[in-house]
Amino acid sequence: MSGFLNPERVSPPDIDMDFCMDGRDRVIEYVRNKYGSDKVAQIITFGKMKARAVVRDVGRVIDMPYKDVDRIAKLIPDTLNITIDEALRMEPELRKLEENDEKIKLLISLSRVLEGLPRHESTTLRAW
Length: 128
Description:
CATH architecture of the domain at 48-118: Orthogonal Bundle
CATH class of the domain at 48-118: Mainly Alpha
Low-confidence stretches: none
Mean pLDDT: 90
Oligomer: single chain
Radius of gyration: 20 Å
Number of helices: 6
CATH topology of the domain at 48-118: Arc Repressor Mutant, subunit A
Distance between the termini: 23 Å
Order of helices and strands: HEHHHHHE
């Protein structure tokens, strides 16, 4: 929470709220009426395939047992925006598994190709 009201922050924080599909139009209409249509826009945002998630997704696709994929994914440090390459540098056990097991080498190799690609999209309402 300290970053939210950080006095060194240049711009004010944005506030993200999710609304059920039922009634969402009313919220959007309210915001447009309140701030003006020229101050409101709906934008699309893309969630990216991050290291742990992409390893789990690829593991499912190549039909690796869940317990093996879970063990490998948990070896990726829980660090914001960490990449697979960074995880391999930081975690010797992960690097050792990749070097010594062809199935894990394939898992890591395919995951690297997909890492950072869009995983899903969502719509956000912005007012300024």
